[in-house]
């Protein structure tokens, strides 16, 4: 039997990763167009509709049969259904399936009118060893040599005679690597031997390369995901540290404000006001010179100015009621409480029961009327 490997003037030789030479062929643009479509199918997805109806359509209307089904319709109409499994899809789809499965592609260009075709199809292609070997080790794809993609591949690979078979592997860019090609009649044993030798010599290199690329891509994806997780973890740690600092700063400033408020309240209460001094001197003077006491009318006029009654409740349960003028300040109530000298009353603040309101350092300058304590009010002393 005769078979040969031809080199085209339009192709070039390029070493693979293991130093094995192969033929690199640039694919036509019309074939490359199908490569961008996502390929998720397998045998059940690319199985052509079988039966007499398809054969009948092929006989009556060859152009009515879809392009990817024309090859199988032509092959099975004349030679039956015993043949390797040919994927019923475009060339680029079959190449993508082969790459995903880490297998090589077996391509067969069918020339129905060539004199060598009948013996090849009925004897070699339908041989049980050939069928089993191809189905187990290759992704098989076929096309009619004078139609559609088959015509494009025939123009690209330029076979000298038919039947034409080739072992294909994906290459860089829009190219394929032709690892082996067989032209003319060939018997089943010789075909299996050539295919076996091709797998042993070059298939492992391309299979390993494809697996290596996939492992590299997987490793790169894993590294990228690990880096993303590390960055996310670091950002979360920074956010947690920032939140902790903000909470610590807020707690510090709140404590600082409380300390300042206590200090201001302490200073306001410990400063002996001028009015208290005058009142004390007046009481001493009144005791020493009772004849100089103010008249009743003057006392009445002074009492008439006290138009606000404040009931003060202490934590011990003691209550005191005192009259103030509506124009007196909240500070006057603090001074009155301090003047009582009750035990246990140190730092404190005043709180109204209803509605609840705190009268602290910031409110000491308010008048009783503005503070809502006129004409009567009840305050509670809350120790700090």
Automatic annotation (TrEMBL):
<dbReference type="InterPro" id="IPR036249">
    <property type="entry name" value="Thioredoxin-like_sf"/>
</dbReference>
<feature type="domain" description="UBX">
    <location>
        <begin position="303"/>
        <end position="381"/>
    </location>
</feature>
<dbReference type="InterPro" id="IPR001012">
    <property type="entry name" value="UBX_dom"/>
</dbReference>
<feature type="compositionally biased region" description="Polar residues">
    <location>
        <begin position="296"/>
        <end position="307"/>
    </location>
</feature>
<dbReference type="InterPro" id="IPR050730">
    <property type="entry name" value="UBX_domain-protein"/>
</dbReference>
<feature type="region of interest" description="Disordered">
    <location>
        <begin position="286"/>
        <end position="307"/>
    </location>
</feature>
<dbReference type="GO" id="GO:0036503">
    <property type="term" value="P:ERAD pathway"/>
</dbReference>
<dbReference type="Pfam" id="PF00789">
    <property type="entry name" value="UBX"/>
</dbReference>
<dbReference type="GO" id="GO:0043130">
    <property type="term" value="F:ubiquitin binding"/>
</dbReference>
<feature type="region of interest" description="Disordered">
    <location>
        <begin position="203"/>
        <end position="234"/>
    </location>
</feature>
<dbReference type="Pfam" id="PF21021">
    <property type="entry name" value="FAF1"/>
</dbReference>
<dbReference type="GO" id="GO:0005783">
    <property type="term" value="C:endoplasmic reticulum"/>
</dbReference>
<dbReference type="InterPro" id="IPR029071">
    <property type="entry name" value="Ubiquitin-like_domsf"/>
</dbReference>
<dbReference type="InterPro" id="IPR006577">
    <property type="entry name" value="UAS"/>
</dbReference>
<dbReference type="InterPro" id="IPR049483">
    <property type="entry name" value="FAF1_2-like_UAS"/>
</dbReference>
<keyword id="KW-0833">Ubl conjugation pathway</keyword>
<feature type="compositionally biased region" description="Basic and acidic residues">
    <location>
        <begin position="211"/>
        <end position="234"/>
    </location>
</feature>
<protein>
    <submittedName>
        <fullName>C365.01 protein</fullName>
    </submittedName>
</protein>
């Amino acid at each position: 039997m005769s078979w040969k490997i031809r080199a085209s003037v339009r192709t070039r030789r390029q070493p693979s990763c293991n130093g094995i030479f192969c033929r690199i062929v640039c694919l036509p643009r019309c074939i490359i167009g199908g490569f961008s479509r996502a390929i998720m199918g397998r045998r059940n997805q690319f199985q052509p509709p079988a039966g007499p109806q398809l054969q009948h359509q092929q006989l009556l209307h060859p152009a009515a049969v879809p392009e990817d089904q024309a090859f199988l319709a032509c092959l099975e109409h004349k030679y039956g259904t015993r043949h390797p499994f040919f994927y019923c899809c475009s060339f680029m789809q079959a190449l993508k399936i082969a790459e995903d499965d880490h297998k090589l592609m077996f391509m067969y260009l069918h020339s129905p009118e060539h004199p060598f075709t009948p013996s090849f199809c009925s004897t070699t292609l339908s041989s049980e060893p050939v069928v089993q070997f191809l189905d187990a080790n290759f992704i098989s794809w076929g096309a009619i040599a004078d139609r559609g993609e088959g015509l494009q591949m025939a123009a690209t690979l330029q076979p000298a005679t038919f039947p034409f078979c080739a072992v294909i592997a994906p290459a860089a860019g829009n190219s394929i690597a032709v690892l082996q090609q067989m032209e003319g009649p060939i018997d089943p044993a010789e075909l299996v031997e050539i295919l076996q030798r091709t797998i042993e010599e070059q298939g492992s290199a391309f299979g390993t390369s494809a697996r290596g690329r996939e492992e590299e891509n997987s490793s790169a994806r894993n590294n990228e995901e690990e880096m993303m997780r590390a960055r996310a973890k670091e950002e979360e740690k920074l956010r947690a540290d920032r939140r902790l600092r903000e909470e610590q700063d807020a707690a510090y400033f709140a404590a600082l404000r409380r300390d300042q408020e206590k200090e201001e309240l302490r200073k306001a209460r410990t400063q002996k006001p001028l009015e208290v001094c005058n009142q004390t001197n007046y009481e001493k003077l009144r005791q020493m010179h009772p004849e100089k006491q103010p008249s009743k009318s003057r006392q009445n006029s002074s009492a008439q100015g006290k138009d606000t009654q404040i009931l003060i409740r202490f934590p011990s349960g003691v209550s005191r009621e005192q009259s103030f003028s509506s124009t007196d300040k909240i500070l006057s109530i603090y001074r009155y409480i301090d003047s009582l000298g009750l035990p246990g009353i140190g730092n404190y603040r005043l709180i109204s029961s209803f509605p609840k309101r705190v009268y602290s350092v910031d409110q000491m300058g308010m008048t009783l009327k503005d503070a809502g304590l006129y004409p009567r009010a009840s305050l509670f002393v809350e120790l700090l």
